[in-house]
């Protein structure tokens, strides 16, 4: 006589394989439809019994086809982001590029305050050999890439650089050369080369394809100032300005990317974030126009409010001219206020909190000794721009923790003064933990508060008139949650297979 328990096991064994397959299909479908983050690689957990080679070849054909489609239609280009705004840790955000044939990897700082991409070259004088960021530095060698070529003085691209003061002709070997000086006193000089940029372009949903495009960039042979230091050294600087030599402008002119890019720089838990050529879509975005005919991303700042009270600052202090204005610059770690606005700003904050904290001066900076949360004590700050757009700064957006003393902490105002200058610079201190959209096509910049560890939807306005939406959060960031998610899925599938064995 067959026991009831044995019959029950046989009934479950008959039903269970179907349930297993449904579960696996749901998990696989979730990946394909973009229910999970877009950087997950689709892998078949149960190998095919037959036609394995044929399907593998078909997948490769499909991948190549997707790449060809993207070459003609453009799409959302995604870059990984590392680094943090914290000046006591890294103090910069950087990404990884692949350039040349065969491609080599280079780490470059994300800089919306300059135009040109440049990388240290093998003949560089002053280029650091190691980095305190625990990354491997590489020097670009034009001779080791089969697709590399020098840019001559007669090249139209060199002429465009000359017009924007980004390049010139040294006369030596008819090479198109450049020299850049940065606000911190550092500088670089070299010559321009052209080579292939390798990047990941995101299709609709979670599909991606590898693409290439020829770009012109700087080959640095001399670095000075802070660029020679190894504590936070990278391979170069990735300029995101509006001029024709910026990578975003070059890819856009080739139909490979839209004339809009976005970033979300994570301020907490190790930093990182999101960087895409495309428009991040969020319902709470606010936009303000760019000031026209300016070399940088200049905004029309009208006033500053502290705790809801507009400060008594002459609006002309913020007007844009050749010597003053408000600039959005991801290459700046902190933030800076025009000289004539700085004292009123600091005094208003100090007056608001003087009854609950102890103000102190530390190395010339206004600081405060605090025994509770800064968000409970300090006021909101509002930067009010043209068109009614306001950038709301919570205390961590304008304060920097300097040290801890027992149960108290010393927080300092992160905004600095540029002595005798009317420049206001919105750096990473202000830009972090926000989606920032640089809409070059419509000449505007938008923002909203956001958790930059989350996924985002991105739109690419393509030449064909179509709009593609992708799930683009943390797509390529090493060590980020997609890899953890893959591990979780693998564990779930292993548990399912183990259960199948137990009940079979």
UniProtKB/TrEMBL annotation:
<keyword id="KW-0325">Glycoprotein</keyword>
<keyword id="KW-0732">Signal</keyword>
<keyword id="KW-0378">Hydrolase</keyword>
<feature type="transmembrane region" description="Helical">
    <location>
        <begin position="12"/>
        <end position="36"/>
    </location>
</feature>
<dbReference type="GO" id="GO:0006508">
    <property type="term" value="P:proteolysis"/>
</dbReference>
<feature type="active site">
    <location>
        <position position="111"/>
    </location>
</feature>
<dbReference type="GO" id="GO:0004190">
    <property type="term" value="F:aspartic-type endopeptidase activity"/>
</dbReference>
<keyword id="KW-0645">Protease</keyword>
<dbReference type="InterPro" id="IPR032861">
    <property type="entry name" value="TAXi_N"/>
</dbReference>
<feature type="domain" description="Peptidase A1">
    <location>
        <begin position="93"/>
        <end position="448"/>
    </location>
</feature>
<dbReference type="InterPro" id="IPR033121">
    <property type="entry name" value="PEPTIDASE_A1"/>
</dbReference>
<keyword id="KW-0064">Aspartyl protease</keyword>
<dbReference type="InterPro" id="IPR032799">
    <property type="entry name" value="TAXi_C"/>
</dbReference>
<feature type="active site">
    <location>
        <position position="329"/>
    </location>
</feature>
<protein>
    <recommendedName>
        <fullName>Peptidase A1 domain-containing protein</fullName>
    </recommendedName>
</protein>
<dbReference type="InterPro" id="IPR021109">
    <property type="entry name" value="Peptidase_aspartic_dom_sf"/>
</dbReference>
<dbReference type="Pfam" id="PF14543">
    <property type="entry name" value="TAXi_N"/>
</dbReference>
<dbReference type="GO" id="GO:0016020">
    <property type="term" value="C:membrane"/>
</dbReference>
<keyword id="KW-0812">Transmembrane</keyword>
<dbReference type="InterPro" id="IPR001461">
    <property type="entry name" value="Aspartic_peptidase_A1"/>
</dbReference>
<dbReference type="InterPro" id="IPR034161">
    <property type="entry name" value="Pepsin-like_plant"/>
</dbReference>
<dbReference type="Pfam" id="PF14541">
    <property type="entry name" value="TAXi_C"/>
</dbReference>
<keyword id="KW-1133">Transmembrane helix</keyword>
<comment type="similarity">
    <text>Belongs to the peptidase A1 family.</text>
</comment>
<keyword id="KW-0472">Membrane</keyword>
């Amino acid at each position: 006589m067959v026991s009831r328990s044995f019959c029950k096991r046989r009934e479950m064994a008959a039903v269970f394989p179907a349930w297993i397959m449904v579960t696996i299909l749901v998990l696989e479908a979730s990946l394909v439809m973009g229910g999970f983050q877009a950087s997950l690689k689709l892998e078949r957990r149960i190998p095919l019994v037959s036609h394995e080679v044929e399907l593998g070849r078909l997948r490769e054909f499909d991948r190549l086809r997707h790449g060809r489609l993207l070459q003609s239609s453009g799409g959302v280009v995604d870059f990984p982001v590392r680094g943090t705004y914290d000046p006591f840790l890294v103090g910069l955000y950087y990404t990884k590029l692949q350039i040349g044939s065969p491609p080599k990897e280079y780490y470059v700082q994300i800089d919306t305050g300059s135009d040109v991409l440049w990388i240290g070259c093998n003949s560089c004088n002053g280029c650091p050999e190691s980095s305190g960021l625990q990354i491997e530095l590489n020097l670009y060698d034009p001779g080791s890439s089969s697709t590399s070529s020098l840019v001559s003085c007669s090249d139209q691209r060199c002429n465009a650089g000359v017009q924007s003061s980004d390049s010139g002709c040294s006369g030596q070997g008819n090479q198109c050369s450049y020299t850049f000086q940065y606000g911190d006193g550092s500088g670089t000089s070299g010559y321009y080369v052209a080579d292939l940029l390798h990047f990941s372009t995101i299709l609709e949903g979670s599909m991606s394809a590898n693409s290439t495009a020829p770009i012109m960039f700087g080959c640095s042979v001399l670095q000075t100032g802070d660029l020679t230091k190894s504590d936070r050294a990278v391979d170069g600087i990735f300029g995101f300005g509006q001029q024709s030599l910026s990578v975003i402008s070059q890819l856009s002119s080739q139909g490979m990317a839209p004339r809009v890019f976005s970033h979300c720089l994570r301020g907490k838990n190790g930093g990182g974030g999101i960087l895409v050529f495309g428009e991040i879509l969020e319902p709470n975005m606010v936009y303000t126009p760019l000031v026209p005919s300016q070399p940088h991303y200049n905004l029309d700042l009208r006033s500053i409010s502290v705790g809801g009270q507009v400060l008594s600052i002459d609006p002309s202090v913020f007007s844009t001219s050749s010597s003053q204005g408000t600039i959005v610059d991801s290459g700046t770690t902190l933030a800076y206020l025009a000289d004539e606005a700085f004292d009123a700003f600091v005094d208003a904050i100090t007056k608001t909190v003087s009854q609950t904290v102890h103000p102190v001066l530390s190395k010339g900076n206004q600081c405060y000794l605090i025994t509770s949360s800064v968000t409970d004590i300090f006021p909101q700050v509002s930067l009010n721009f043209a068109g009614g757009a306001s950038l709301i700064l919570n205390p961590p957006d304008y304060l920097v923790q300097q040290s801890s003393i027992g149960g108290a902490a010393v927080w300092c105002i992160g905004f600095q003064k540029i002595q005798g200058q009317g420049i206001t610079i919105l750096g990473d201190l202000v830009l972090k933990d926000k989606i920032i959209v640089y809409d070059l096509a419509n000449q505007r910049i938008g923002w909203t508060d956001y958790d930059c560890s989350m996924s985002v939807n991105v739109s690419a306005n393509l030449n064909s008139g179509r709009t593609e939406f992708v799930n683009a959060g943390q797509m390529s960031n090493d060590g980020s949650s997609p890899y953890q998610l893959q591990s979780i899925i693998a564990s779930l599938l292993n548990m399912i297979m183990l259960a199948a064995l137990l009940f079979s």
